[in-house]
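Please check this one:

***
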Amino acid sequence: MSDSARDDDTTAKIPRQGWWQRLSGGLKRTSSSIGTKISDLVTARRLDAAMVEELEDVLIRADLGVATAGRIAAAVGEGRYDRTISAADVKAILAAEVEKVLAPVASPLGLGGAKPFVILVVGVNGSGKTTTIGKLAARFAGERKRVMLAAGDTFRAAAIEQLKIWGARTGAPVIAGAPGADAAGLAYDALMAARAQGADVLIVDTAGRLQNKAVLMGELEKVVRVLKKIDERAPHAVLLVLDATVGQNALSQVAEFAKSAGVTGLVMTKLDGTARGGILVAIAERFGLPIHFIGVGEAVDDLEPFTASDFARAIAGLDS
């Protein structure tokens, strides 16, 4: 059994916190890092241009992005020079400005009218891609959707086995081949099977391609082309799974995968393992891609639809 499956079995035996508690707890390292620096900055000082500049530096180092950091710092300074300002005031402004950036991209993943609705899941190795697929399968199954999975990460036998475990747990048939099989051919077979069996949703895993490997990106493009031979609109969604712990590297991943696979939306995982959760704000600012889900743990219900206001308040360390 995979580590994630064991974790789910364990957490199922103890009372689960509500989503807000898990989100704010998961973002604690990020909010504490920012909050501590803000408190140190404003204590026993009147606000001046130097403090505003230092605040901007703090926010840039927290991976919020240069543009967002500049706007937040400017908002803090507006009309407040030569006055004291509390850390709570700065955090409230931070939350409000972050929410302005995130609100336009907070978007539920709609399954539309296609049947099967084909979701291609991409991302680099270690991003949490296969586990995210399992969690999505569980969510859709809970909505009484008939789900099928395709083990398109044919380079790793472990990924195939992990997806089969998730399939067994969620009641989703898994289309898989031998390790090393042609991923595009497997995707073709999976879509044909999903059609024949009346599946509502087909989720296709892919190899964890390094974003700077042109050959591997070309193979991903081939998977997309093959799906379109069956349904010219497929894949109907291309979800890029991002690991929050990689920080600024996530920006280059979005750029490369968007170019190769036509990314339509994002899933951010492992926000509970980093003080760099602000990178989601920088990604939203630069790319404007829909953010569908975020993850703050290994349990099956630790992947939730993204809500801008909750994320903004959690990253600022504010109460719900």
Q: What stands out?
A: The chain has 13 helices and eight strands. The beta strands are 117-122, 147-150, 174-175, 201-204, 237-243, 265-269, 291-295, 303-305.
